[in-house]
Design a protein that fits this description.
alpha+beta; 11-stranded mixed beta sheet; 8-stranded mixed beta sheet; 19 helices; binds S-adenosylmethionine
Amino acid sequence: MLTKKQVQVLDFVRDYRKKHDYAPSLDEIKKKFKLASVSTAHYYIKKLQDAGQLKKGYNSPRSVATISEKQTIEVPILGVIAAGQPIEAIETPDETITITRDEVGRQGKHYALRVQGNSMIEEGIFDGDIVVIRKQEAADNGQMVVAVIDDNEATLKKLYRERGRFRLQPANPTLFPMYRKEVEVRGVVVKIIRNLESLSDESRAKDKYLRKIDYSWDYRGEKTKSYTHGMHTYPAMFIPQVARRILEAYSKPRDTVCDIFCGSGTALAESRLLGRNAYGIDLNPLAIFLAKAKTTPIDPKKLIREYQALLGRAEKIKNTDIEKPDFKNIDFWFKDSVIIKLAKLKKAIRQIEDHAVQDLFMVAFSETVRYSSNTKTGEFKLVRIKGEKLENHHPDVLGIFRKNAEKNIAGMTDYFRDAKNAWVKIIQGDSSKPNGIDNNSIDCVLTSPPYGDSRTTVAYGQFSRLSAQWIDVFDDPNKASGLDNELLGGRATRNLTHELSSEYLNDALDRITRQDENRARDVLSFYIGLNDCLKQAYKMLKPKKYFCLVIGNRLVKQVRIPTDFIIAELGENIGFTCEEIIVRNIPGKRMPIKNSPTNIVGALEETMNKESIVILRKN
Ligand SMILES: C[S@@+](CC[C@H](N)C(=O)[O-])C[C@H]1O[C@@H](n2cnc3c(N)ncnc32)[C@H](O)[C@@H]1O
């Protein structure tokens, strides 16, 4: 298939040959078409040769010959199609492209579109390429289609039918599929024409930032529970290897680093192993408790001694020696026999004098609380086991505790051996406000922020509630779930007016507002909070030092919010330069794999399977 210009050159060669019995020279072609140079003429000849329209050997003087005539069709290029985000559908025709009938089959009507965006790169379709489409209104599963969605937005994707919906699948590992209940098929791709005169520079300029896929950050199949990292589950934990690699790349031994959403303390534990001093900040008291226990080295000999004594003590505690704790719905979440066993264990742990040792066993106890409760353990939200399963639920409380305690002793043994002489200070506070860390004092800030869905999907407070009710880390454990309202994005803004300067954010907010204004106000509140956190991080960081954020691009109301780009834009407004955005797969990140933000019964949505590492540098 040829461009209009190529067809003209071919016609010229053909006519010239008829007249002269030999082909025109490159110079004659150059003059005829007022081309800039002979090499441009050569370029056209080469393309015609590659397309099989001219015989090879044009370089030998006047040796060119046209291939015997084939039936060609002229296909209108109707406009631009987005192979990324959908754009307003198809524009008016202005150009045509000539292709041979053989290339697209004898049947059907065809049109062509120029591709904009990179969502189909794994199918060999690049920004600026032309795709030839056969008009049809239906497609088979897996066919690459032009689909019109949301009234009048056209996009190029592979189409799959799933239960009650369609999946529009991009062919680019950095992008997520779209799901729709309705899709209008406008045709199927039958031919791809590689971009000749590149459009890509022009269209690439539309995205201010570039994502770089780097599979070396996946750490697929690697152990993530080494040292103290496996002591306790926590939602959306760092992969230790990611934290370590960031620390090694952007800080050096004896530096002071800070994780402003430290959660269970993965980055802090890694910092100490690498000889960096570390601050950690988090609003969740359970996170603070876990982070302290995970980063405080304890001599394993002491731990083993205390452990044996603890088991002996727990066995001797009689039912009459304990008090059943009193908190709301305790009988709903725990069976009576479980409550008694937990209460005995807790009493035995509380008798340990050394606080660090007591805390380490309390962490194992907290995990035991989760696993022996009536909740489904695969969920971060509190969901009760039902029916027969609940009746048959007879957890071996002591067995669970022993397994956890012994795992923690083993992890601490390695940690005690390898932790360097560095400090870790953990602050319970709100990272969008000052937390007492001096300005210009930090060598590297690294963090994985919440995704802004604490009230819906990754509910840190709700996750922490049962433990909180048993291990006394909350002032009022009955209010632990309420923590989710205090976290970033926990309270919707009053309206949608704001002062954040981010085109990407505004675009996402517009799209969400069109469907659900309340959700848009939730989302806005998250980014306002996040922007304040970026400002605080900027203040604490030394000039020219790095702020590395590991973040997923969340889907709200089917709108993918490019949080990585938004962070880059907001950061640059504050005084950072965005140096790099790396995309990694998250094989092991503990996020809910399936939930249903669409509210369509039976519709499942992948929550996250990729995240971006945004590298900002203070100017
Ligand atoms: C993705 S998690 C961090 C997980 C951590 N990297 C780990 O490995 O365990 C995000 C954390 O941000 C905390 N958080 C949310 N809003 C906060 C705020 N405004 N200030 C401080 N921490 C906050 C949550 O409590 C949660 O622990």
